[in-house]
Amino acid sequence: MKAILFTLNLLGGLAIFLYGMQLMSDGLQKMAGAKMRQMLSIATTNRFAAMFSGLLVTSIIQSSSATTVMVVGFTSAGLLTLTQALGVIFGANIGTTMTAWVVSLFGFKIQISLFALPVIAVGFFSQFLPSKWATIRRIGEGAIGFGLLFLGLDIMKNTIPADFAQSPFVVEWLSKFTPDTPLNLILLILTGSILTVVLQSSSAVMAMTLTCAAAGIINFPTACAVCLGENIGTTITANLAAIGASKNARRAAVGHFLFNFLGVVWVSLIFKHFIHFVDWLLPASPYGTSAEVLNGSLPYHISAFHTAFNVANTLVMLPLLKQLAQLTLIIIPKTKREDKQHDAELVYLDSRFHQTPELSIVAARKEVERMLKFVSKMVDKLIYAIKTDDEKLFERLIADAKEMEHTTDVLEHKINSYLTQLTHGNLSRHAIAQTVTLFDLTNSIEGMGDCGEKIARILEKFRNTNPLSFDQKDLENMELIAKKTKATIKHARINVSFFPNITTQDKENAANLYKTSVHAEEELNKMRKELRAERNERISQGELKVSPSSITAYGDILNNFERMGDYAMRVTDSVLRMQVAGMQMQTPISDLPSPTTQEPIA
């Protein structure tokens, strides 16, 4: 019965520790969502920038698993190249060592219960502050996680009896597993790997290792051997995240494994020397059973070993980054038609981003840009369909336009479904506002696609009527308004590309973009009226003889092109209103001229 109670208490402490890690990571992500996006963008500069971006992001969110899963998702989306992704992962391995230092510095030197519960109390009650104190509330959520983390550590420490390490059974068992022989070293590394795979958290296993070392259950070399295994086990998370992802994402996950595995191999070959190196770096000895050693120098030495291993491995592997990438290409070879995505499939969004919901805003925006790109291509197809005399080409262009409208329908459904799941997650207020804006954007873009399909069907229906429904002048007018519509859509695409990464310095730029977009949309409205009036004038003077249905068809084509412009303006309006939220512009959006739309949007 004692053994069962001991095991349950130990697991309970571990569970509280893991839950605290999750809460702290979530709270930190909410506070630093935009900063993480900026840090990740640094990765595209060079291999050193990629490493530092991974280090910074992981140090902030305190979860290398979250960083590596995010990297796998971004690589799958094509936002990071394979070498950039590997560079970020190198940095993430160094960043994750911060947890061991936090535990070593605060977990064993002071009585945890003196501050863990007060921190949890302050963090919990800060959640009830008014919404205007959003930053304090996010800090409070992180504080709850921080307090729970140390409370779980305290429970694990207190669960282990003071005389546990001196029992004959424990001493005899541990003497068999000290890393004095290559076989024992391998067994300890495997133990650390398996524990990390089971718990899916190297930080949790590191906390357990530090706790056992502080209790005198394992010595310094044994803890270091287990620590090496943790570095291999933590790569499993990224490899699980890569299942079903693109080949480049799978290569990034394999690269993560190879980086840590090869590092463990070369450090294992010089294990004793590396231990002595760490002893030389830090003062005091990690060997002994006194309280000063167990609660002071020993945890510091273990943390230093963890950091020294990852820093040294990064220094060795960073110059070989391209060779490591080539090795992953040998393991997962390239194919001629690699990762060819169907247009109606999501490219940038997938479930891997649910662990870092703040960052998924970037991927969602990229999907919205894709939707707008399809609409722009649709207008190109319609322009060519209007002016071509080749019947087969006309049929193909109309079919392509219809297919693109179907693509926008499917993408709207998939993006909105993803965003709906996202809103059920743990998002900050600003991220929720951005998500709502993205809903508006997808709906507006899908409306643009519907208008394009209506134009395609009208052109198809009235192509070869007798007499001809549209003369050469009509076709020239249609081409003219189509090009103006395309220009309006281009403005919307530019505006979406800014979302949501605007800064205070961009406020005047945002105002100018809005003015330009309003002007373009007003010109489109004016052109529609002029072209319709011009045709009516030709009909009334007898220059053009057409059927009543042709008159309606021509008007519908002009109206739908103009409505596409209205939807594009709605996209611009939604984006820029979101961008300037919380910024004081010299010319607020509300004071800028509004687009004039005479007819309701269908």
Layout of strands and helices, then pairs:
Layout: H1 2-42, H2 47-61, H3 64-76, H4 82-95, H5 98-106, H6 113-125, H7 134-159, H8 168-175, H9 182-199, H10 202-214, H11 220-233, H12 235-241, H13 247-269, H14 271-281, H15 291-317, H16 321-331, H17 357-387, H18 391-423, H19 429-461, H20 472-498, H21 507-540, H22 548-579
In short:
The protein has 602 residues and is an all-alpha fold.
Name its key features.
602 residues, mainly alpha, 0% strand
Walkthrough of the structure:
- The chain is mainly alpha-helical.
- Helices cover 75% and strands 0% of the residues.
- It has 22 helices and no strands.
- It is elongated, with a radius of gyration of 31 Å.
- The C terminus is likely disordered.
Distance between the termini: 72 Å
Mean pLDDT: 76
Structural class of the helices, strands and pairings?
mainly alpha
How does the overall form come out from the CA principal axes? elongated
Q: What is the N-to-C succession of helices and strands? A: HHHHHHHHHHHHHHHHHHHHHH
Strand percentage, roughly? under 5%
**Which regions contain 5 or more consecutive residues with pLDDT less than 50?**
582-602
Contiguous helical run count:
22
What is the total tally of β strands?
A: 0
Gyration radius (Cα, Å) is: 31 Å
Q: State the helical fraction.
A: over 70%
* Main sheet makeup: none
